[in-house]
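Write out the 3D structure for:
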Amino acid sequence: MSEPTFFPLEDMPWVDEHKQANAAPAEMIAAAERSGARRKKLAQGECGYFSQYSTMPAGFEVPAHSHSHNELFIILAGGCSFHSGDDAPRELRARDSAALAAGKEYGFVCGPEGMEFIVIRPGDADSSFR
C-alpha cells in the first residue's frame, strides 16, 4: 500500500488557464480573469482521482459544456443555478452535489454569493464547449 498524498489548498498554485492543453474558449478565460474566477488542481492521478477546487464570483457563468469522464460536483460555499440539457435549471447551494455522466452537457450561473466547489473525476477529462 502506498503512502497518502496530501493537497493543502493554500500550498497549491492557481492554474494558468492559458497553459492548459485543453483550454476553455479564450473569451471564457478572459472573463474569468476579469472577474477573479480561478481554480487549483488537487489530485492529478493519485489513487486514480483527478480533482480541482474552484472559486467564482456572483453572476459568473460557465456555458454549456461536457467532459470526457464522469464527475462529482460538490458545492462548498455559495451556490448556482445549474442547467443540463433541456431540463429546467436546478438551484444548488452549499453542501449540495451532482453526479454527472461523461458526455452530459451542463452549465451554471453562480448565485449572489458566488460559489466555491470541488470537482472529482476518475480521469483527466477533456472538455467540449458549445
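The first helix runs from residue 26 to 35.
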